[in-house]
Specification:
7-stranded antiparallel sheet, 6 helices, globular
Length: about 180
Amino acid sequence: MDKPEYFINNYKKFFSGDNTYKIVFKLNDYLEDNTENFLHVVNKFKEISEYVLANKEVYLLLMKWDKTQTSQDIKSSGFNEDEADSKFKLEDYKEMINPFLEEEDELICLNYNNYDFSAIKKLAEGIAGFELGIESGLNISIYFISFDDYPVLLNMYDDRGMEVLLEDEKAYNEIKLKFSKYLL
């Protein structure tokens, strides 16, 4: 089975319906200084994502809401999609993955054989900075997904927070306990 087929089959199986376990984390500390908020958000995402995705194969599902502008913004941010271990488009699955995607939007998947925050740091900064008005802000949605050990999906929706979806009760309890100070 090739990577796109493997990804889509597992995505449908684990994340297209109701998830058994969902954790929502608050990332923004709502400090007066947006730059400080930005740093807190990125560091919290780094801390959680490194714990949850450490030593795992990870798929980044990128939803580019305006592919022309977003692709230019991503390149300007310093992130290079071509550094992923593999990359594939998922145009035929837009409706299944996100019914709000339109014709001009793009859906691609980047695959990394081993999660490394430094490889995706510019994307995390772009998501965190968008609503805060930070120059590197990106109008993009990204799901960080792994099927290793247990299926898990991380969605940092903006500077306010992120959600973690998973099927494994033990992992759910461990993650919730470890990061209880960030629970929403």
